[in-house]
Amino acid sequence: xxxxxxxxxxxxxxxxxxxxxxxxxxxxxxxxxxxxxxxxxxxxxxxxxxxxxxxxxxxxxxxxxxxxxxxxxxxxxxxxxxxxxxxxxxxxxxxxxxxxxxxxxxxxxxxxxxxxxxxxxxxxxxxxxxxxxxxxxxxxxxxxxxxxxxxxxxxxxxxxxxxxxxxxxxxxxxxxxxxxxxxxxxxxxxxxxxxxxxxxxxxxxxxxxxxxxxxxxxxxxxxxxxxxxxxxxxxxxxxxxxxxxxxxxxxxxxxxxxxxxxxxxxxxxxxxxxxxxxxxxxxxxxxxxxxxxxxxxxxxxxxxxxxxxxxxxx
Amino acid sequence: xxxxxxxxxxxxxxxxxxxxxxxxxxxxxxxxxxxxxxxxxxxxxxxxxxxxxxxxxxxxxxxxxxxxxxxxxxxxxxxxxxxxxxxxxxxxxxxxxxxxxxxxxxxxxxxxxxxxxxxxxxxxxxxxxxxxxxxxxxxxxxxxxxxxxxxxxxxxxxxxxxxxxxxxxxxxxxxxxxxxxxxxxxxxxxxxxxxxxxxxxxxxxxxxxxxxxxxxxxxxxxxxxxxxxxxxxxxxxxxxxxxxxxxxxxxxxxxxxxxx
Lengths: 314, 260
What we know:
A: mainly alpha, B: 260 residues
C-alpha cells in the first residue's frame, strides 16, 4: 500500500493527474454546496448528462480531442438543457423535476447515439470518447490538468468573492430581491459555475457520475457543521479526497474507470459522516436520546422517592 | 383627487395606484390604489385568498404586476429600496439552512454593504442590538432550526430592523407565534411608530386590529376601504370585505368580530 502511494507520487505524470483530480473535487465540492442547499441536486445531474451530446458535437466539428473544446461543447449543451427545463416547466403543467427527468434522458440518449456513430466512423475509433461515459483520469495530459486547475481556481474564487450574495439567494431569494440584489443574474452565474464544474469534470469522472462530485461531498459536509463557511470547507475537502482516490486507483492501469471509484470514495465519506458526525450523526443522536431517557428515568425515580419521604414525614 | 391629497401623495411613505396582479389570466389583485399616512401602523386585512400577500409582493416587485405604479416617499421603489424593510412569511425559507440567528440578522445589512464586502464589527454590533430589541440576544449563536416558530419570527423582524428602514412591510408576522413573541412584536411596532416609521402589516386576527393598529386597508381582490380604524373598521365594511364568511358575535356588550 505504502509502496503504491510512493510510486504514485514519484511518477510526475501521475502526480499531475492526482493534483488535477484533487483540485477538481475541491472546486466541485465548494460550488456543489450551494447547489445542494438550493435543492437543485438533480439539476447537476441534468447538466452532466446533457454534456455528452455537447462533447460529441465538438468532436464531430473539429475531429480533434481537446479538453477545452469539449468543455465548451459541454457548456453549451448544459445551457441548452437548462433552457429546455425552464421552458417546459414554464409553458406546461409539468413540474421541474419531471422536466429535468425528460430533458436529462433525452440529451443522454442523443449523446449515446452520436457516440456510437463516432465510434464506428474511421477517426472515431481512436478518439477514446467512450471514456467520457465513466471517466478515465489516467488519459489526461498536462494541458487537461492546467484546465482543471484554472476551473478550480475560478470556482473557489467565485464562491469566496460572492459568498454573501450566494448565501442570501440560497437561503431567502425573496428577501435578496427585496434589498435589490440582481437575483436572476446571480442565479444564472451560479448555474454557469455549476455547468463549468460539471463540464470540467467529465473527462476525469464521466458524464454518468460527475454530479456525485457536486452533491455527495456537500451532503456529507452538512453533517459536520451548522456554519456555511465550514460546510464549504468540508465539502471541498471531501470532494478533493474523493477525486484523489479515483485518480489514484485509475492510474493502477487495470482499466478501472475513475468515476465509479470517485463516487465510491465520496459515498463512503458520506456514510461515515451520516453515522459518526457529532451532533447530527445517527450514532450521536441515538446516544443523546439514550442519555436523555436515562436522565429522565433517574429524576422521575428521585421525584417519586422524595414524594414518598415527604409523605411519611407528615 | 383634490390638490391637498395630491401633495400628501408626493411624500407619502407608500402610494399605490391602479395595481392589478394576475396569475394565469385570473386577477388576484384588481385595480388597488391607496396611500399610507406617515408614522402609522397599518393593518392589511381581508379573507383568505383576498390577495393580501400578493399585493405586498407586487408592491415590492417580487411578483410582476399587469398594471399599476408604486411610489415610495415620492420616488420609485428602485431608488428608495434602502428605506424599505421587508419581513417575509416565516414559511418562505428553509430553516435547516446552516446559519445562526446573528448571521440571518446581519443579512439585513447586505443591501447597505454592497458587493463582495463582508459584514464587519459594525454590522455585528448593530445586529446584536436589534436581536436585543426583540428579546433574542441570548440566541444569537443558535442554529436557526433550533429556534421555536416565534423565535424564528423575531429573528426575521430583527433582520428587518437591521435594515434601518423608514417603511416596514410585514407579511403575517403574527401567524402561529407564541404569546411572548406576540408581545415582543407589539412592543416593537410601538417603538417603530414612536420613531416615526410607517409599518404595513398583513394581519389575520380581527379581534386585535383595534388594539394594535391605527389604520386599516380592507382588501378582497379589490380595495374595499382604507382609512383610520375608528371610521373604517366598521361591521358594515367588514361585512362587505368578508362577505358571508364573517360572523359577528356580540359578547359582554362589546362587538367581537370573527373572520372565516
